[in-house]
Design brief:
The complex is a heterodimer.
Chain A: E1 4-9, H1 19-27, E2 36-40, H2 44-51, E3 56-63, E4 73-77, E5 84-85, H3 94-103, E6 111-118, H4 131-147
Parallel strand pairs in A: 1-2, 1-3, 3-6
Antiparallel strand pairs in A: 4-6
Helix pairs in contact in A: 1-4, 2-3
Chain B: E1 3-8, E2 18-23, E3 29-35, H1 40-46, H2 54-58, H3 66-80, H4 87-112, H5 114-119, H6 130-137, H7 139-160, E4 169-170, E5 173-174, H8 180-209, H9 212-219, E6 228-233, E7 245-249, E8 255-259, H10 264-267, E9 268-272, E10 279-283, E11 300-301, H11 304-310, H12 317-330, H13 341-361, E12 380-387, E13 390-398, E14 404-410, H14 412-431, H15 441-450, E15 469-474, E16 480-486, E17 489-490
Parallel strand pairs in B: 6-11
Antiparallel strand pairs in B: 1-2, 1-15, 2-3, 4-5, 6-7, 7-8, 9-10, 12-13, 13-14, 15-16
Helix pairs in contact in B: 4-7, 4-13, 6-7, 7-8, 8-13, 11-13, 12-13, 14-15
Classes of the chains: A alpha/beta, B alpha+beta.
């Protein structure tokens, strides 16, 4: 186990939602020995255990704000995220997970960076990644490498 | 003429988990519906793929229970190749599957469903979450839950190759042997799991059952529907999550049907409504009589409560003791109170843990014969398991080369869709009168469907953008006339 976790989140059979998984796949070999690179399609609270024991975490995920053109890359820090409560515990996400980790005094990453890519289509099962999001993948990889 | 109201709790994926409420001219509720994910698109996507890949592909359907899809898929591929797993292959599968049921039920009880009961159904939104749960049960309990779930997931990694998307199921068995050291570790974790199961049952007793208000809520008419129930049972008619016969009991508790999972198409049909893309499952022998309860209606229910209702008992001693108490407190079988699912889930969690220990200790676990090699031409196969949220069906048809020509999937929540719609309808009718849409409708309607834990897993893993809860009121011309909006509450 290295000290850094690189986690690509997303569902690779749901069009642009795959972006985090695709980035993680590209970085896996290059980061070998320096970071643990994994990808998955789990939701916030089920992810919690994955982070325990790492000093820092870099998360790559899809985001749908509807306010930016597809392919826009946003960088967020854990502390930048509003502590929000989802309308139901079913939909709890990263901010709630971070708060829980803090309350439980878990051995959680001190540094938590998130690279989020604005998506175009996240609904088509088996749908391809749209051109704008595919074009953003090399840039996301560079951004992740730059902070490694 | 009617008005249309939409409650859309997760707007990220349109049409998933959306509530439609249709008002009549008087402004009262004519009918309310919950729309939930269905998998027709996925079935199309499966066509043209190698059938051996299906257990891996289908595990991507859901971010909550990939193992259930992996296992149903693996069993369906067994069927396609006409091969059964070796004794050890089956043992490893069952041990992995019970570990998953244990882990997922723990997730649900403490993180997802728990907030309604542990924190309380009327607690403010900001407290009805895992953080609120910890405020009530204490940080030490929280740490215990995290530690136990982590160990369960370590065990799944050990058995399945990968914890998140398992890769061990092959036609005729599994891909990886278990070493003596791994067995030792599995026994250790399973022992802790049994202890954790007993502890969780105690938490439920102390916090929920000792509070008369909660017990009254479980028993209330608002959350009671007298329907049929379906679940899987072993040869002694005891609950089994991995394999067995499907048993259906009538609203009076008498056995109505018992059939081999491969014959499900003879017994289960799907009803289509013009307003929804979801298909509502019903019992063919009774027929579709609308969203009605009672013996004359083919509506049935699945999930923990249904599994306890259809069985004659639990296969393990501690869980069976809890099972007896469940029915002595809530009345004779079947129990029709939807909220009793939470209690049933805890009993199943303990059962899964006891099964884990029994299977982990089995000397055959480390045997080298983990797979029978398929020798026949592939054709067609059905794989059924009890997923945490109910019976899950995978059915594949292939050509002679094993390429999928057709797939049919019924996810657990589809089995429950009609009954969930009835619960949502009842909550909406009790709250909306003469066109007045109260903001409280959001909470109450959520409660009505959350007890079933309808699976929105595939919609829950991206970062939230704007994810408000919205009630939309439409006039008969489908023009938006009113919007009640509640954005996520921000902590100070």
């Amino acid at each position: 186990m290295t000290k850094t976790l690189v986690l690509g989140l997303g569902n690779e059979i749901l069009a642009d939602d795959a972006v985090g998984v695709l980035v993680a796949r590209q970085l896996k070999d290059e980061f070998a020995g320096r970071a643990d690179v994994i990808s998955c399609a789990l939701h916030g609270l089920a992810l919690l255990e994955l982070f325990i024991g790492y000093e820092r975490a870099i998360l790559i995920d899809a985001i749908q704000t509807g306010k930016n053109p597809p392919g826009t890359i946003m960088e967020l820090r854990g502390e930048d995220l509003d502590k929000v409560y989802a309308p139901s515990p079913h939909y709890a996400g990263v901010p709630e997970m971070l708060e829980l980790a803090e309350q439980l005094e878990l051995d959680f990453p001190k540094e938590f960076r998130i690279f989020a890519v604005e998506v175009g289509d996240m609904r088509t099962i088996g749908g391809p990644v749209t051109a704008a999001v595919a074009a953003a993948i090399p840039a996301v990889c560079e951004r992740v490498k730059a902070v490694m | 003429m009617s008005r249309h109201i939409t409650v859309d709790p997760i707007s990220r994926l349109e049409g998933h988990g959306k509530i439609d409420i249709i008002l009549n001219d008087a402004g009262d509720v004519e009918r309310a519906y919950l729309q939930i994910p269905e998998l027709r698109g996925f079935e199309k996507f499966a066509e043209g793929r190698q059938v051996e890949d299906m257990p891996q592909i289908t595990s991507r359907i859901c971010g909550v229970c990939p193992m259930a899809h992996h296992m149903a898929g693996t069993k369906a591929v067994d069927g396609v190749y006409g091969v059964q797993p070796t004794a050890t292959g089956r043992l490893i599968r069952e041990l992995a599957y019970n570990t998953f049921m244990f882990e997922d039920h723990a997730l649900h009880f403490y993180y997802l469903g728990g907030p309604d009961f542990i924190v309380g159904p009327d607690a403010p939104k900001a407290q009805r979450n895992i953080v609120g749960v910890l405020g009530k049960v204490g940080l030490e309990v929280g740490k215990k839950v995290i530690a136990m779930r982590r160990e369960a997931r370590d065990m799944m990694t050990l058995l399945c190759g990968k914890v998140i998307h398992p890769v061990f199921g092959l036609p005729g068995g599994v891909s990886k042997r278990i070493s003596a050291d791994e067995q030792k570790k599995a026994i250790e974790i399973s022992e802790k799991a049994v202890e954790f199961g007993q502890f969780t049952l105690q938490v439920f007793h102390d916090i929920v059952l000792k509070n008369q208000q909660y017990v009254d809520a479980i028993r209330s008419d608002a959350y009671t529907h007298k329907t049929y129930y379906m679940g899987m049972v072993d040869e002694k008619n005891q609950v089994n999550f991995y394999d067995g016969m499907l048993r259906v009991v009538a609203p009076d508790g008498k056995e109505f049907l018992k059939f081999k999972p491969a014959e499900y198409l003879k017994h289960i049909a799907e009803h289509v409504e013009p307003w929804s893309y979801i298909k509502f499952c019903y019992l063919k022998a009774i027929g579709w009589k609308g969203f009605e309860e009672g013996p004359q209606s083919g509506v049935y229910s699945v999930a923990p409560l249904a599994r306890l209702n259809v069985a004659d008992g639990m296969p393990t001693p501690k869980a069976n003791e809890a099972y007896q108490q469940f029915f002595s407190v809530l009345g004779k079988k079947p129990v029709h109170h939807t909220l009793a699912n939470h209690w049933a889930r805890v009993i199943e969690l303990l059962c899964a843990a006891e099964m884990m220990l029994e299977q982990a200790k089995n000397p055959a676990l480390t045997d080298a014969k983990i797979r029978n090699i398929p020798m026949t031409t592939p054709t067609e196969g059905v794989g059924v398991v009890e997923a945490p949220r109910g019976t899950l069906f995978h059915h594949y048809w292939t050509d002679k080369k094993g390429v999928v020509t057709k797939a049919n999937l019924i996810v657990a929540t589809q089995n429950n869709a009609a009954r969930i719609a009835m619960s949502v309808d009842r909550a909406a009718k009790s709250l909306i009168k003469a066109g007045k849409v109260n903001d409280g409708i959001l909470n109450r309607i959520e409660m009505a469907f959350r007890a079933y834990d309808p699976c929105h897993g595939c919609a829950t893993h991206a970062l939230p953008g704007d994810m408000p809860l919205v009630v939309r009121v439409y006039n008969p011309q489908h023009e938006l006339v009113q919007e009640i909006r509640r954005d996520m509450q921000r902590a100070s």
